[in-house]
């Protein structure tokens, strides 16, 4: 495998974070001290200018980039590179005062007042004009500096706008989407229901809260349009930058499983994927190990957007945040553990929000490397410096990648459809948790599944799990069938294949579009359970699984029955089935059980696919990155107690010691074994 | 008793439901199949055109009824009759686009966008014009068809509108209501409080959420006006239809205890009462038997609106709905049980929403007779067909009625007043639950009480229970007094007779308007309990009742004390009293206890009234319908286990077997004994 | 100590309440009866005209005061004085109809409709004009009557207005506040964060809900402005009244810890402090003793606003209210107990809302002296008459005051800053509960602490506790330092001295502004706990405290360590410290514990300050009022059982018996010992 080095200038892993010197321009002593401490902390890169519009352009047309240029230069002189952000994430007051169309209109039709951030109208021409000007100037004045290695477009893009301009753009989008055929739209949106027929595209309004919210097709297209329009805005910013500095790569910082945008549609426009990672460590609703493995799933989602290339952890906190329900400190060791996890999962960076706490306003208590005390004599600073040291040791890992032959189907359209579907139980749909639970069960077997969309080519995989694949994209069923027919191991669950891409139900029995035949079953009814309801599945292997939330009643056509319901009126009927297609197998699990109970199925699928598993002690994460010159095994002990791990051989880059067969990791300890 | 046959054409009970062929006009094969399957399922009637406006009039003034005429004709040819709906329940997009006044304004003063359904302004002249046109055309083109047996006005009427037209209409309504005497309004609304005096009717606004919500009289009149205005709209539709087809009866589908409209004011305008019945079977907050008996109460409310005449269950689901918190399947047997319950309680129809699931939009997963699979080989279809068979057997029941000598007073104005009153505990008022609980206790004694308004003639009853009759209509006190004086058994509770029709408190002691004298007590104070507070009542008969939520402190004038408080500072004072007036008795229960604890009182009242009770095993419902040729006893086993029932004699129309003294009903089993 | 007699005319304590004869003008018999019963109940003063605008001025410019004059005169003839309210608390419908600018605009930018009360725009010139006219007429027609002893400005002032006039006034306020220096505002609001820079004051909008809510400085200044503007409005009303009747004192009725206004800024404009007291007695979330002592804290807050002068309890209920979650009756004895508590805590009045229940509208079921029955033969009336008798006996107490050498710092700005700070745990900040808990622990030691702002002179105190003093006003740190240096005993806690008056964090380590040196510690990090998290503190004296919610990690400079953490990674590090400055001591408690656990510290502080404590049986409150001629010890038994109290000597004014060393108080009993 070829290494994909993101930033040859850095010569290793990126360590740094958001830096806001614009808040301290009247304190040159502090700016001086920052550089000294950055070097002490092993920082080699900072992100600049995320919210600097008012500093660059304090009045319309009056530009000041010289102050920032000096800072970039000074950092560069000290070996610290710059990720340069476009400032569109927050608008100056003068701009909103003059161009009110830049401010969004909410789902009740009310235009926002100036304030907060991330709330521009994506459509407004006047706003785009202003952005074009500032971005071009930015590229010209700062982007040409050799210290600048990456552009960071805006910040944490998200949100919707219901202004008249956006409504009109939505109508135009729909007209193109449905090829100017309003009848096709009516058919796909099933508008004969409740007299919802449209005569023209210009009659269609977005789903205003006090308007049309009962047409599934409309709701979905509004979400797709919002992604499309945000992507359009992002591309517009990229184009401006590229016109001046075509060689600087671009990213934008994603937010994990944020549901407002389909990141998979945006990823192709970016040179590198990056995201902001803020887990609630040490919380009271899950174990620490679970928090860690939720984070691992998020890393996998990000990683899978550009397979074969490292991503970046653009933001994280060295200690705590200020917006969780309870803002608790990271316990000693956890900072290092979480940094190494990011790298283990495919990140080539560990970056913080932020370098130094600002004295005032909304995030004055968000964790930072340097606290208000301003000293490097703090627990947090020492933790960061320690991480910096370790990242230097791990420099050879940069450019290597995580690769796998197993994939989980996790689809944004499917999420949205499940969120919106009027069926099942209102509070128990839990699509994400269901996917995450299964993914984590594979991780416990040492398998870092890719997390892919249902329209992706599955030919690179041998094991695919597609939980609750309610909505089938065009081609998805064919994709799955082809996968099984060439020998793949596929597992699907209850609530699969009910609707097509337009959210129209398949006629003739679920799962539709040919999947009945693939799995050899028909799902006749789906039963939803109250939280206290339970059923069971008696598996042929003698095990018994517990059923919660959902149970489908199947008619088996030509599948083997692996498990049957133990209770209720469908007692004895099929709950788990498998239909073989040559070497390929299509498993169907008709009811919700814990992922842990399904593990034997997963192990069989992996075994049949010839993928070897790596079972580890409870609470130990295992990830592998590989490159041309070999691979790196990461072991993360999420327990507070030491654990012994067998079967480890190679050089531990953390301790610089050779491991032979067995090693002991301390509580929260990490090892990176080079082979 | 004369039989009241609703539809001689049908020759028995109605079996059918909503049918939306407009969603399948491009699939003649499906329309064909529908007819075949309807006949197989024993369907003899369908409801057409509920939301067909856009199909009838796709563009303003461009009408198409021919497609529907063909469908009505085809169904008619196959022995299936039509209930024809006016399409005003949802407006086409073109209409809202052109006549924005048709869309409602909410309680914040914001006009809705086009969308959803059931949300027209009841006042808008332009909207009424459009409705008049479509309704007249409908009657002319379709209403004249011999297959049409009933008109169904709009759909599930409800909601309020705060638009300027409605505000003005409200002012005119008030002027008439108060005979153009603003001083009278000020006096009745007690506007000297908080300087709320009005100088003219034109100063009065409805209770906008961000306006005047603290005047009880205003709040109540707004509710009365909303009923009045909705009724006015409904009558307007009826008038249009009658002008063309005067002989077709009309209904509209009510929604049980829906609190937005006083259905008792609307009932006189309808030829037959119908309602939509969607219980949450098998839920986790009550037993199945309780769910069933809540439904029985709702049936009784509907039945009592037109005593001596059957009503219709216009909608219900053959399996599940899609809008409950948890959408659970009906267990086997429950469909038949719930169908027979409707008939037992006085319905002459079992109708579904809907015949066939639509492929898309809001209700695509609402249960239907025919699922997306499109087959009659399904559990649900078989259940429906079985019900169809049974209903045919029960044809002789059609036109018979439920009659009773006991009544429960349950008043819409009183509900609204209790909801709005600023007193007691905010979360423990529970007027409806209190009434339902008592009604159900009588049902367990085999008594199907009528549920009547407080202004109704009580001369047909011998036992009346009037729980929490906080608000007294003019004449109600006289009504109750006359009832007792002619020998009736009356029971009232805490929170009786506090305010008059204008919600002004009675001066001189509660209960007011002469009820102090009727009951022989004065209620000096009412204590409200926190959920953990408890008291007790020691009854003279030695039993002890538990007190929760409310306890009045009485001064006894000339009543017999039947029970006294066991605790707190009013320990030993009267809690249950009775004052006799000849054979009549006026009971007063001053505190909230469970209905079950009050049962001995109810039994005594029934005994004194000479009404015999029919005690049945736990979980078995008993109802009787009678007609000229005899009566039909219905036994419904709400248990999953079989029960033996003694004292049954006659022909069981379900099994076609003669029963002698004892029968065993299987779990969820039913029997209909003809005598 | 000189006595501060509020109303020499009364010659003792005020007993009375709100009286609304305008609701009964058509019932002269009732007005007659009122006077008779008032005398029977020992009422010597009533509050008139709180909501009488529509009665005074039924149409614009058409005035009627004669009816009220007759009532004042009649009461006066019967020895009952009048507190006369300005009617600005609610506007007539005609006024809002004509001057819509009088109605407020909410935080979404929507103008209210006419209705409710307390919702005028404080800025509207037209509204002020109308108020000026009515207030002047009121003073001229009624204020000159000898029966009028006090003006009551408006009613329960509160709320915000976001109308364009208020926005502009806010901008002008800011311009003056920041001396027309927008750069200073930008610096103090830290607007370099998120590009929030302002170029001019006219760009600034208040924190609209859908606008700028993320700038702490803006949020705080909006709260300060709202107080300023309300104060400005109140002063405007006072000025009008003073211009006619300069000698009548003024008050307005506060609402305890209401957070919308900084009452301490308003107090100087008033001649006497008064407040409305509505505890939830007998609730289910705390003991009765706790409810009582919460009330005692509120009394202390009010008392401390004008030290050395009695305040008034302007409103309370003789029985129950109608707006609590559960409106429960006061148990027998509780009325007397609560009346005496008010006096014990420094009130020279016991007043009710209201004298007689109105028949209709929002408060028709709010407790009153005279119920709808209209009789004096009721438990409540007898309780009130009994209280009237007792208050007569306690006449000599009038004008005496509560004095103390201990104070609790409780600051409105600090409250607002803590509410708004984005840090800690969102639901566990509990600033008020923390302060109240500590205050109550001192009360259990017989110490009635003053409750003072952080800018107040501390030279009159020897013990000061300043919990969670997150925000330091300019001079506060100096104030505290001077206090300790002259021998004071000071205790501060976690979350002290993080930000200055502008909410900018102190640089160089917390607590800032010199407090690090005063306490001899630096707080390096603050850990927030989930509700199930616990830690402990091992105290040098062997006791062990439990830690919840918050724990700071300290670096000790030169303080003595009194206690250390028992768990977690900061186990063994300092949790409680003390640094001595001569006789003065500065204690720092770095974590949240119960106030009860801290009691030994409090006792030590009091002992070192030479303040003797008075420990009493559980559930007994002790307060002392003193004047020139001696002091009055109040003992309140909050238990339902009798208690023996030792060490009591003097005349019990309640029983008129001499007590020697020991007395027994019955359940809910009171004693007032004159010495």
Q: Major beta sheet of chain A, specifics? A: 11 strands, mixed
Radius of gyration of chain A, in Å, reads: 26 Å
What level of helicity do the residues of chain A show? Answer: 25-40%
Beta-strand segment tally of chain A: 27
- The structure class of chain A reads alpha/beta
Biggest chain pair contact, residues each?
Answer: A-B, 58 and 58 residues
What is the molecular shape of chain A? globular
Quaternary: homotrimer
Mean pLDDT of chain A: 97
- How far is the first residue's CA from the last residue's CA of chain A? 15 Å
Strand content of chain A: 15-25%
Low-pLDDT stretches of chain A are none
Number of helical stretches of at least 4 residues of chain A? 17
Record the SSE blueprint.
The structure is a homotrimer of 675-residue chains.
Chain A: E1 14-19, H1 28-40, E2 45-48, H2 53-56, H3 66-77, E3 81-85, H4 93-98, H5 125-143, E4 148-152, H6 164-177, H7 182-189, H8 216-244, E5 250-251, E6 253-254, H9 263-266, E7 274-276, H10 288-305, E8 311-315, H11 334-344, E9 347-352, H12 379-393, E10 406-409, H13 412-420, H14 431-444, E11 450-452, E12 463-466, E13 471-472, H15 476-485, E14 489-493, E15 499-500, H16 515-519, E16 521-528, E17 535-539, E18 544-556, E19 560-565, E20 574-581, E21 584-589, E22 591-592, H17 595-608, E23 620-627, E24 630-637, E25 643-652, E26 657-665, E27 670-674
Parallel strand pairs in A: 1-2, 1-9, 2-3, 3-4, 4-5, 6-7, 7-8, 8-9, 10-11, 10-12, 12-14, 13-15, 14-21
Antiparallel strand pairs in A: 16-18, 17-18, 17-19, 18-22, 19-20, 20-21, 23-24, 24-27, 25-26, 25-27
Helix pairs in contact in A: 5-8, 8-13, 10-14, 11-12, 14-17
